[in-house]
Amino acid sequence: MAAPSGRSGRHAWAALVPAALLCLAARSAAEPGTAPSTAPSTAEFDVRPGGEVHSFSRSLGDYGCTFTYSAQGGTNEQWQMHVGVSEDNGLFSCSIWRPQGKSYLFFTQFKAEVKGAKIEYAMAYSQAAAGAQSDIPLKQEEFEITETTVSHREGKFRFELSKLTIVAKTPRDEL
Prior knowledge:
Blueprint: H1 6-30, E1 41-47, E2 53-60, E3 63-72, E4 77-85, E5 91-97, E6 106-115, E7 118-127, E8 136-137, E9 143-145, E10 149-152, E11 163-169
């Protein structure tokens, strides 16, 4: 299942996703003794221009997230990736963003891929919230969502990216 369709579905997810991500962040702060392989984590990485394809990955237990991109213009930018698993182990989240809000690089392509889970919700943004600025989502026609990836749509993507958010459902063993 990809992103929910219709306005009511989008509004429901818009309220649910920040709450789920806050719960994951609170869980990581509240459980300092959690094993490193399952503790939510945030890592910084450089997004580098020059037209070459680069990737950055993080894993958390059986789940993983890989961000692959190519960008032009400017200089390196500091970005962050956060991965987390819900307390009931039912959801895996991956967020990739530029903390300063807007990226000044021109992205020629991007793809975020999750492993070990299927995407329930995903959104890409041309500007991430920073200071008084709000998230500005890409138009639906600019990117596509499959069971495991969020990627640019060739010929429709307008080269602006500052944030990706993914919530994926983890497989559950039935008793």
